[in-house]
């Protein structure tokens, strides 16, 4: 009985701990913007026809003095829960536009937009003012949304997407193949690019079903007249396979991991120096 009691106390303490940790994370996350603890890393995207880097995806990192480098998979859901995603997302769009406007070549910059940011519904004015203050050509900005964004299908999300599209901004479907009713989503909006999820790309050489899926998505993109980019390409074998399957572009550690803004010029130079680079 003593042991049982001890165990209960242990769980109670652990739960207290968890509540404490979450509370701490929330407080720290609330101050992170003001404390300038966020940074954007950029990962290049390589076009297979030209063998050139055509753009970079901005990926958010939180450098917390207390928690270390926190990955977005951890703090984005918390930011959504705490109602902070609007402000953080706005910072991401403004920062990505400003930094991309300073690049030595006019490549595209892709920004991830989560479902909750559409709920905040000030996305269009934010995009407009970020473009205005940075001077970035709207055609260089790309918004990446996942299928979950389109799940609450009351038309308001599509209205926002159509408006940003009219400004000239591109819209990509991220993590394609992992959500719900992918095909009807593609039918409901004219996406500019399909990002094939890593689960079909980062696989063993003998995974023939994954390869068949990549081939089918690439064919779909081709018939719709839109780009298909394979995410998470880590090996030369995976590179060759998605290229043979008909993807138009690739992204992944093989080309480059996400890099800090001050390394972008190097990455551009490395890849224009050796066109067949991989
Ligand atoms: P995502 O948009 O699908 O981004 C791709 C993720 O895969 C990134 O993880 C990237 O670092 C990682 N990755 C790229 N190439 C490889 C590879 O070859 N191998 C492996 N193992 N991983 C690779 P990250 O940066 O941790 O981001 C995770 C997710 O967090 C993103 O998935 C995106 O959904 C979300 N996210 C990132 N930044 C933002 C942001 O600014 N706003 C919002 N709302 N979400 C963001
Ligand atoms: Mg993305
Ligand atoms: Mg993705
Ligand atoms: Mg993802």
UniProtKB/TrEMBL annotation:
Domain of life: Bacteria
EAL domain residues: 22-272
Position of the signal peptide: none
Stretches assigned to coiled coil: none
Protein's recorded name: GGDEF-domain containing protein
Organism (species): Blastochloris tepida
